[in-house]
Amino acid sequence: MIRPITWTGGSSVSLIRYIGELSLLVADIFQSLIKGRLRSRQIMQQIAEIGYRSQPVVMVTGAFTGAVLTAQSLFQFEKFGMQTMGGALVSVSMLRELGPVVTGLMLAGRVGSAMAAEIGTMKVTEQIDALRVMDVHPVDFLVTPRLLAMLLAIPLLITESVTLGIIASNLVGIEIFGVGEAYWKFQMEKFTDLTDVSFALIKGVVFGLIIIVVSCHQGLTASQGAAGVGRGTTRAMVYSSLFILVTNFILTLLLNQFFPAGEQVG
What we know:
Elements: H1 2-35, H2 40-52, H3 55-77, H4 86-124, H5 127-133, H6 138-176, H7 181-191, H8 194-220, H9 225-258
C-alpha cells in the first residue's frame, strides 16, 4: 500500500520539478530574445537543418496520411452514398489535426533528437562551460537561434504536408475511387476556410516551441558521458511527442471555443 503512494508522490515531484526547469529555460529564452544578440549565421544554419532537410520526410508523411485517410473515409462513405464528402473531410482533418500533429511528431523524431544529441555532446565535453568562460550565454548561442529557425520553418513544413496530403487525397478520391471531380472539389471548398488554416498555424507554432524547449533542455542537462547523451536523445523525442499529443488535445478544445466551425456536415 505504501509503495504505490510513494511512487505516485515521487513521480509527481519529478514532474513538477521538470516543468519548473522547462519554465526557467523558457524565461531564459525570452530574456535572450529581448536582450541577446541576433546571430544570423546560426539562424540560417538551423533553418537549413530544420526546414530544408526535413522537407522529404514531412512531404512523404503528409502525402500518405492524406491518401490513407481518403481511402478509409471513402470505404465508409460508400455505405451511405456520401463519397463526395471525402475531400472535405481530408482537407479539414489535415489542416486542423493531422498536418500539424504529424509534422510535429516527425520534427520531434528527426530534429529534436539531433538537437539533444548535439547540445548534450557539447555539455559532457565541457564546450558549454567554454562558452560561459568566453562570456557567451549558452541559451543565447545554442537555443535562441534554433527557436527562431523553428518558428520560421514549421509553418512552411506544415503547409507542404497539408498541400501534399490534399493533392494525394484528390488523386485517390477522383482517380482511384472515381468520385466526380466537380462535386469533390465543391464540397472541399465549401467546408474549408481560413479558420482551418489558423488552426494549423497556431498549433504548428506551439508544437515548434515544445520541440525546441524540451530537446534543448535535455541537451543542456545531459550528464554521465555518452550514455547520458543517449538517454537525453531518447527522452527528447519521447517527451516532445507526448507533450505534442497532450497539447494538441487541449488546443483543439480551446481553439474550437474561439474559432467555432462555421458550416457543419449534414
